[in-house]
Design brief:
With 334 residues, the chain is mainly alpha-helical. It folds into two domains: 214 residues, HUPs (Rossmann fold); 84 residues, Tyrosyl-Transfer RNA Synthetase (Orthogonal Bundle), CATH 1.10.240. It contains 15 helices and five strands. The strands form two sheets. Strands 1-2-3 form a three-stranded parallel beta sheet. The protein has a two-stranded parallel sheet with strand order 4-5. α10 links the parallel β4 and β5. α9 packs across α10. The structure holds iron/sulfur cluster. The site of iron/sulfur cluster has 13 residues, from α14. GO terms for molecular function: ATP binding; tryptophan-tRNA ligase activity. Its EC number is 6.1.1.2. It catalyses: tRNA(Trp) + L-tryptophan + ATP = L-tryptophyl-tRNA(Trp) + AMP + diphosphate + H(+).
Length: 334
């Protein structure tokens, strides 16, 4: 039997190239290798976006449509929305009882976001406790593997710690999930910083070839290469960092030509822009076909909820029985 993998993503609306190469391709690859559960983490979004929830539904739909257009297949993985899973909040309550404040406050993301965001916005019970929600998402479906980047390892370690604490306090209920380190490349934005909507430096998956061309032409290159015959330094060039993705067999030749000023930045950029547009063309075609099916996301999420709810109900019943909580005659035959 294939190992079960779970991975959740905050609804962020239309996706960009950073998402595509960062997570989405991994998810699509994993759906053939593992028993995959991919969910829209709309409760996680609430931890920072609770003041204005008006776009959460739209962002969920847009993100799932992008997943599907990129190749995620509901017949090969389970796609669901976190807030459709009725057993999660109760399990969060039980797991929250065994996590100390110190464990939550040591979470590096918590400290970082308190610094970066307006502390009045995220200085909440919900935001401090979101690692418990994350742990519940993983443990509730008995996931054995969780794809993570290096920076997310502390979160997974806390999940493992929660599973260990629960199993030793009561009885063994939850498997300890293992990390699968993501091999995703980092995609720079057009200004050289991390690609992000909030920096407005992104290339959207929906962008036309013309828009992609314009955005790539604005990309930061080697600041020392001011004229066509100046020798370049590809290692500091944002455009060059896309070559390993789009022209993996051509990286050395392009680097040498740049260093010897044998190619100009305009040609170099146009080549990358065309490659991006060409790579995204099938995505754009599938996306426009999916938009013609207005119920597709609703149906897929409903189907996913039907699969996941019984799994989580069963985990919840096992946990309650181990904790000797509630009436054993309620909540199934376990
Ligand atoms: S030639 Fe290409 S790699 Fe060299 S600086 Fe210009 S855009 Fe960058």
């Amino acid at each position: 039997m294939k190992n079960r993998v779970v991975s959740g993503y905050r609804p962020s609306g239309r996706l960009h190239l950073g998402h595509y190469h960062g997570n989405l391709k991994n998810m699509i690859r994993l759906q053939d290798e593992r028993d995959c559960y991919f969910f829209v983490a709309d409760w996680h979004a609430l931890t920072t976006e609770y003041r204005d929830t008006s776009m959460l539904g739209t962002w969920t739909e847009e993100m799932v449509l992008d997943w599907l257009a990129a190749g995620m297949d509901p017949d090969r993985c389970t796609i669901y929305r976190q807030s459709d899973i009725r057993g999660i909040p109760e399990l969060v309550l039980y797991l929250g009882m065994i996590v100390t404040l110190g464990e939550l406050e040591r979470n590096p993301t918590y400290k970082e976001q308190l610094r970066e965001l307006d502390s009045r916005v995220v200085n909440t019970y919900g935001f401090l406790g979101y690692p418990v929600l994350m742990a519940t998402d993983i443990l509730a479906v008995d996931a054995e593997l969780v794809p993570v980047g290096e920076d997310q390892l502390p979160h997974l370690e806390l999940t493992r710690e929660i599973a260990r604490s629960f199993n030793s306090l009561y009885e063994p209920v939850f498997p300890e999930p293992q990390p699968v380190l993501s091999r995703a490349p980092k995609i720079p934005g057009t200004d050289g910083r991390k690609m992000s909507k909030s920096y407005n430096n992104y290339i959207g998956l929906e962008d036309s070839a013309e828009v992609i061309g314009k955005k790539v032409r604005k990309m930061i290159t080697d600041p020392a290469r001011k004229r066509r015959d100046d020798k370049g330094h590809p290692e500091v060039c944002t455009v060059f960092s896309l070559y390993p993705i789009y022209f993996p067999d051509d990286v050395e030749r392009v680097a040498a030509e740049c260093k010897d000023a044998l190619i100009g930045c305009t040609d170099c950029k146009d080549r990358i822009a065309q490659a991006i547009a060409c790579d995204l063309a099938p995505f754009r075609k599938r996306r426009s076909e999916l938009v013609e099916k207005p119920d597709v996301v609703r149906e897929i999420l409903a189907r996913g909820a039907n699969v996941v709810n019984p799994i989580v109900d069963e985990s919840l019943a096992r946990a309650k029985r181990a904790m000797k909580i509630g009436n054993p005659h309620f909540g199934g035959d376990l």
